[in-house]
Design a protein that fits this description.
63% of the residues lie in helices and 5% in strands. By secondary structure, the chain is mostly helical. The chain folds into 2 domains: 105 residues, GROEL, domain 1 (Orthogonal Bundle); 49 residues, no CATH class. It has a two-stranded antiparallel sheet. A hairpin with a 5-residue loop joins β1 and β2. α1 crosses α3 and α2 packs across α3. It is flat and about 60 Å long.
Length: 155
């Protein structure tokens, strides 16, 4: 029999579910990311370190964990990359929420703080962004060199 959680107990349970999913994916992130061996109920075995595949194959019961799975799928559908990163970042932000909740901050205050931080980040990004004319090949090469370093080779 499941016990219905309320208030801070329910919030912490939701956060812990999301953090668990995030921690599962975290070890598969980056160049030294470890592969996961996934075994389905019918015995199908998949070995991967791809976050989208891991999230797709997980059988989740917790609603908050399912929400992170949907976040990962949306990232994959819209951008095609970064599925692991968005889940790990979301899990890290939620993990910090636990600390703030334990300090006595109200959940709405925490949410407003995150909204202000996101707004500040967007202003900084927009202020530092440069317009690039995609028909100007030299600008595109300069942007690629800036992004990738000196590894870009001209034709």
């Amino acid at each position: 029999m499941k016990k219905r959680l309320r208030g801070h107990e329910a919030i912490k349970d939701n956060i812990n579910a999301a953090v668990s999913i995030s921690n599962t994916l975290k070890s598969s992130l980056g160049p030294r990311g470890m592969d996961k061996i996934l075994v389905s109920g019918d015995g199908e075995v998949v070995v991967t370190n791809d976050g989208a595949t891991i999230m797709e194959k997980m059988e989740l019961d917790h609603q908050c964990a399912k929400l992170l799975c949907q976040l990962s799928k949306s990232q994959d559908d819209e951008i095609g990359d970064g599925t692991t990163g968005v889940v790990v970042i979301a899990g890290s932000l939620l993990e910090k929420c636990l600390f703030l909740l334990d300090k006595g901050l109200h959940p709405l205050s925490i949410a407003k703080g995150y909204e202000k931080a996101a707004s500040s980040c967007m202003k900084t990004i927009e202020a530092s962004a440069d317009e690039v004319d995609i028909s100007d090949r030299s600008q595109l090469i300069d942007a690629a060199v800036t992004t990738l370093g000196s590894k870009v080779v001209n034709e």
